[in-house]
Automatic annotation (TrEMBL), chain A:
SUPFAM superfamilies: LuxS/MPP-like metallohydrolase. It comes from Ligilactobacillus pabuli. Gene3D superfamilies: Metalloenzyme, LuxS/M16 peptidase-like. The gene is yueF. This is Peptidase M16. Residues 178-351 form the Peptidase M16 C-terminal domain.
From TrEMBL, chain B:
Residues 64-176 form the Peptidase M16 N-terminal domain. Signal peptide: none annotated. NCBIfam families: YfmH_fam. Residues 183-365 form the Peptidase M16 C-terminal domain. InterPro entries: Metalloenz_LuxS/M16 (IPR011249), MPP/UQCRC_Complex (IPR050361), Pept_M16_N (IPR011765), Peptidase_M16_C (IPR007863). It comes from the Bacteria. It comes from Ligilactobacillus pabuli. PANTHER family: METALLOPROTEASE, ZINC-DEPENDENT PROTEASE. Pfam families: Peptidase_M16 (PF00675), Peptidase_M16_C (PF05193). This is Peptidase M16.
Amino acid sequence: MKIMDGVNLTLKPTKKYKTNRILVSFTTNITDPSEITARTLLADLLESTSVHFTTQRAVALKLSELYGASFGTSVSRYGNVYGLNFIINVVNDNYLAGSTNLLQETCDFLREMIFAPQIVADHFDEEIFNIQKQNLTAFLSSLDDNKQHQALSRMNSLYFYDQSQKIPTVGRVTDVPSLTATKMAAYYHQMLANDQINIVVSGDIATDEMVQALSDLPFTPRPSKQLDLFYSQAELQAVNVKNDREAVSQSKLNLAYSFPIDFKSPTRFAAMVFNELFGGSALSLLFQNVREKNSLAYYAESDMDFFRQEMWVQTGIQSENKDQVLAVIAEQLKQLQAGQIDEGQLKKIKIGMINSYTGRSDSQNTALSRGLGASLTGVVTTEADWVAGVQEVTAKQIAEVAGLAHLQAVYFLDGGGQ
Amino acid sequence: MNLQKIAYPQFNENLYRTTLANGLTVNLLPRENFHKTYAVMTTNYGSLDTKYYNVQGKLCTVPAGTAHFLEHKLFEKEDHDAFDLFGEYGADANAFTSFTKTSFLFSTTANVKACLQTLLDFVQEPYFSPQTVEKEKGIIGEEISMYDDDTDWQLFFGMLRNLYPKDPVSVDIAGTKETIAQIDATVLYDCYRQFYQPANMDLFVVGGFDLAEISEVIDANQAAKTIPAPIQDVTLNTFLTASGQDVVTFSEKKMNVTRPKSMIGIKGMQPVPKGRAGLKYKLNLELGLYLLFGESSPLFQKMFQVGIVDDSFNYELEMERGFHFAVISADTVSYAEMESEVKQTLREAHQILEGSAAELALAKKEFLGQYIQAQNSLESIANGYEGRLFDHATVFDYAVEVQKISLADVIAAVDSLLAPQVFSTFRILPVTK
């Protein structure tokens, strides 16, 4: 439901859980790649302190008082759209002795954290700002200490041409120095005034009760707009290849494919089944052939991003097996493109997808992300739609979508011989 | 099935428990409204159980990584793979090994009965052959390589080698490429017979299943199997007797990292009390460490404000069969300052805690809320069950017990952890280029 222009509330009432979970998501299209890093720094600033809670300790003590409410901010990317999210999870009063009103207190806390940052005279408190800036620098510079993450982010940087898409969702360290306490305050005001806002709530709450609890949040109307979500880029004829040599025990071989699928058409179900069959599950061709049959890897998996029209494969292998692994991966994709699909395996893959989709419905987090996804895309998928969509996918459709996957980039983090 | 009902009215939950004739402990927690059922079968056997007395009373030693290897190989049978059977039903199956436990699990929203039968059967009907064992060495070798590059894992095991230099707990759960090379089908069968006896195992089922139907499936499945007579006291822990003098108080390692990592370890030298008293000791320590090192502690705030640590500052308490220790760690260039601040807080812990009555009241609220939040997750409920270690306590017991804790309890537990003070420091430093 619309609370005001540009501010929407999706309430998912349920008695299944012992907590109420609230997501407040600010989304926008960005104009400058450096905004990605700025939004991460802003998320850190807004999570850590406020006018009334001037230290992290004060925030932590307040959360203890709210019976250990889990609170945090995060950033996210949906194609061309960037999100800054506040999430809080708090125990439902029914499970506590005595009389409590945690829902109202939680909304009051959210109001404080969203609307009362430590901004004085158009800039963030310098001391707090400098610490968060220093921490973000350290965090971003150490991301590559996780080798799987490093390989994935270098693969993406090789695959995408667009400057913003090349950058990891949390930003990059080279953009940090230019961010100042004044710029961040201006960015905060701009976000608060202009971003699209989606509030999604899951819990044992009536609509009027929730609207009442949120009514103290002083949002202002802003032009309501459908954000430009889907990123696409022209396909290259040649494959971009990059090898980095590093002292690692396990080498990482990652492949990126362009994967232009229309999210709003039924093709998306065929694409999901294809991915699951190719490398998305333990029953997949990659898992069975790279790992089980040839013992070449502990993990070999595929994944995809509709919003960025990309599919990718990740593996952890020994350097000397690189060519063999590349050949096995190419062979599996070729088989699917040729429509060589075992009906029994396809049936299992579909049952597994439906089973796990239904199982994920037992999570409040899923409720929030599905609610937000529906708001952003305008595509509302009921559980029955989803199940039917997957059921109806044929081997022929899978071969067709498999044909849309074109290898564009191969990144190899080479640990050398043992 | 003769089920004992355990009611938790405050949380609107009923847990049903029994021990079958063959010794298997069964816990059933039906959850209305849930589509999913999660089941986990656990054996009280993990990576540190590398020495045992067999049925003839002979002391046997097996290679490090055997429990984990067995976990991998139990899925594969002579003519099929249990993964495929779960696949037929659309269920997700998995397994994991810790220091003292091995667990096999599935989650599903359909065919619960068939999945449960599959779980019981594949875990209770081993099949190992030289070919399949050899093939697995490549896969597990890659798993070990992956962890070799995982700097947080290396930090943790560096600390374990310092705290328990002579004990199997200090070796990676998966073993090393050298130790797994020594594993063969005979070793796996021997360990299977030793440790996978129903009396040494438990089954926990939670979710949207029908209680009567599922009890019947379990009863019928178990009654149809002939299982050799149990061996008493199947596990053997020897390392708790080791003195604090073995501890390596400092070491460091160079790795491919951007930021240094440092960890302070505290080795628990007193045996953990058995049963619920052990749980109480654990909760007391969790609260004590939270007050000293948590996000709302004065120490964290002090170090955060001057930039010594960031949100990577963390503490953890590990308490399993036969050992317990606490670690405090951070990724920071100012590791020397962090280490000295942490050690000073440990030395002053008793006095700090004496002045923390108001903070404890808040911490208890926090812990209660967290234990209620955990009840949303079927996995948290089942995986949080520690079996015999804490006399079958569940997260509902945690939530009840934590409300009864006093400041004196917390201080006594922390004093006990620190008597005598056996500390160690382990660092991972960047390779200088």
